[in-house]
Amino acid sequence: MQNLYQAFQEQFETNEQPSLFFAPGRINLIGEHTDYNGGHVLPAAISFGTYALGRKREDQTFRFYSMNATESGIITCTLADLSYNNDHDWANYPKGMIKYLAENGHPVAHGADLLFYGNIPNGAGLSSSASIEMATGVLIEGLFNQEVARLDMIQLAQKVENEYIGVNSGIMDQFAVGMGREDHAILLNCQTLDYHYAPVKLDQHAIVIINTNKQRALAGSKYNERRSQCEQALADLQQQLSIDSLGELSSEQFEQHKHLIQSEINRKRAKHVIYENERTLEALKQLQAGNLKSFGTLMNESHRSLQQDYEVTGLELDTIVQAAWEGKGVIGARMTGAGFGGCAIAIVQKDTIDDFQKNTNQMYRETVGYDATFYTAALGDGAKQL
Ligand code: GLA
Q: In whole angstroms, what is the distance from residue 236 CA to residue 136 CA?
């Protein structure tokens, strides 16, 4: 923390002590690719995330500096022009957030100096971008004495992602980052935005995050392709069913009506969504009842469905999850996030974690040719001032 304050004072040539804010990253325990289909998700905020330091300025200039992109130096813009700028690289995330807050009832009269430091690996599917957006949100709220309803902040951050950055993602990431609670997961109904917290009591077990270190190349275009396949499947089903989203269908209804879906590929995509939605609700029940084993089995089924029906895993995620399944003391493992690379999670007996990492990595390296990285995750709070 001391280093961050020092870096702030050096970069912005000031003796002033900035205010400090933090927004976490997230994992998703189960409920993948269901958010933009009006289904349920079960994510949790993690203790890794983005630190944002800031102080108000007298003029209308914004200056941004990231300790994760020191080569970009200080990026500058003014309050009058917060539009997207290719040259502004990562700083478009905070810029977009400031712009959308201003346009939606939270204008600021002055600029600010902002420094960011993130300890979530970039592009690993742990929502580093939602974390930067929400860190900016709480920073603007805190520095300028604003009160932003948390759900508004979350929805504005999603809008930044969708419209300002141009990634057509659902609401899960910003919601988890904004609403996380220590030692809890959040069950969110993405159609109604009803949610509740579920304590995650793992006793002798821990959640291990495994980064495949495969960057999620092509993730954007494949993600959008999956979205439109689901939209097409929904349109086909709507010929006979009056539903607004795939998330409204039970698996029984799906089995009765799946013949309406014209393309076999779209049928498989819809099948994943509908069964995954049911698995998520079932997983919550098992978690609440303390049935970790059943919870783990549902995680494994989720991965298989993402592999075979949704087809968003790929060699790296399949290899790491298969290796994890073979480990001693493993309750369950699956990919987490959008897929196409990025991270998997596993629930592992604490006293076997060292062996688990060694063996899993060895199998991974033999097939893929490079190492995976392992983190033990604590579930933490949502975005806030520290
Ligand atoms: C990404 C998106 C989320 C969600 C997941 C898949 O993380 O940002 O909205 O769709 O993929 O579950």
A: 41
- pTM greater than 0.85: yes
- How many domains is the chain built from? 2
pLDDT band at 124; cut points 50, 70, 90: confident
CA 234 from centroid of its chain's CA atoms: 25
- Ligand 1: which atom is nearest the Cα of residue 28? 12
How confident is the model at residue 217, as a pLDDT?
62
Q: Does residue 386 belong to any structural domain of this protein?
A: no
**Catalytic-residue membership of 244:** no
pLDDT at residue 267 greater than cutoff 70: yes
Strand order in the sheet with 195-199: 40-41, 184-189, 195-199
**Shared-domain flag, residues 113 and 241:** no
Task: Write out the H or E segment, with its range, that includes residue 227.
Answer: helix 219-237
As a whole number of angstroms, the distance between CA 346 and CA 378 comes to 13
Quick one: CA dihedral 328, 329, 331, 333, positive or negative? negative
CA of 170 to the centre of ligand 1 (A): 6
